[in-house]
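Support reply, case 0932

Customer input (verbatim):
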Amino acid sequence: MDLFFTLRKYGWEPYGASLRKHGGTVYIMARKDGRDALLMTGEDDPLFSGMHWAGGACKICGLTGANCEALRERFPFTAPVSLHGKSVTIGLGDRLGLCTSAHVAALRGTEVFPVLGQQSTRELLLTGRTNRDMMDATAWQVFRSGYEGGYSVDGDHRKTLAEILEAIRDGVTMITLDCSDHIEATAYGLSSSEAKRRCAQAFPSELLWLWEEHYCGKTFPIGRAQSTAIRRENFWQMLLTYGGAVLFAESIYKEAVLPCGRPISFELSIDETEMHTEDYAHYFIAAELCRLGVTADSIAPRFCGEFQKGIDYIGDLEQFREQFRSHVAIADHFGHRISVHSGSDKFRVFPCIGKESGKRFHIKTSGTSWVEAVRVIANCDPDLFRRMVEYACEHLEEARQYYHIDAKASNVPTLEAVPDQTLPRLMDDTDIRQIMHITYGALLQAKTTKGTPLFRDSIYRVLQEHREKFYDTIRCHIRRHLLSLGVARQE
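Our regenerated output:
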């Protein structure tokens, strides 16, 4: 208590949950003049660089990359680990680098293992961040919140060897390999003979012989009273569609994941296509990965219906349930878990995912915390929110090159006519929610004619000034996801 009194006397607001001791040193994070710092008293810890204060009795350390490396060394619970052996895991994207404390609070009392840092190359580009920025922001907030339950960091939707090597070098503990550039999406529109001819051009003859011998016209058990069949009439289309993705996954795994010398969770994403993944195609991919010595912790198929950004599932629930059950049976057969991408706000299918998976799944949420942050801005700074929505609508077509959504700017009402108190509820409107979901890059990167940030500083200022409301909004929204999935209890 004396330490807290002293810090407050000098204008610092301590984060009580961060208080830790190591040897003769006391560590605590605190905030002053809108900035966080790591403070220590007692014996000096030479791992951290900083300036001494109060006659040398206290050391103030900035939240630098070097000090974050020291933090992970001194307090290993702030360092990420892989997802090996975990049953229920959730990816919690944080485009702002502010949401980890709220995400941790949402997980309290559950056995869900979190991926607290999760950004794709696309998101890093659009937010102007790096892998290290993502990892350091996560580690500092883990320490600040007092969370010691472990977490992972995902180099999400990486498409090239260079991107994956960079992410692994920077310390990620999970790689999600986006295979979309190696999936021939038009193959099922070809005749069997044409698909076979193109397979002969794309793959070695001995490999084609092996694939045909092992899979063509065969039926495979995938669980109790369940099986899947790879029929001759669509065998060559399947090979042409997914054969390249399998070989790409093998090369990445053996050139980047295996040689790194530490545990890396490896997820295969085959969901970035217009066509849904047939169960027999999932079986072929999983069987080939096993044959090739590739250990996939999870595979993300493309499910029926639509998993558009920021809104609920669009499609037939019973069709989804039947298809999802088959994919789970295949995953159980080979020992990996099903991964559900674009899982934000898919409340219609969450109960099915939780039940049919036997609570063995990974689900990715990405922009939902950003969207809920925008809701807080609507509540706390209506004029800023109106300007953000107007700018987002103007730049919607630029954002569409990265994301598929149905939203139309023409459906957004004139916000000047909307009362301030009504604005937060607009974030439940499908069009506005989707537009704000995908235009985060335009908003965060926008500059005035003088080159200063147009929105970024104001966004961070409002969320920092209303931290309690911001954290509680994010916590409640993520908690709602967990409750619907059946992996958390009502508080």
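We compared this against your earlier run and they match. Two observations from our side: The chain has three domains: 2-69, 77-185+216-368, 370-478. Residues 235-257 form the longest helix (23 residues). Please reopen the case if you see a mismatch on your end.
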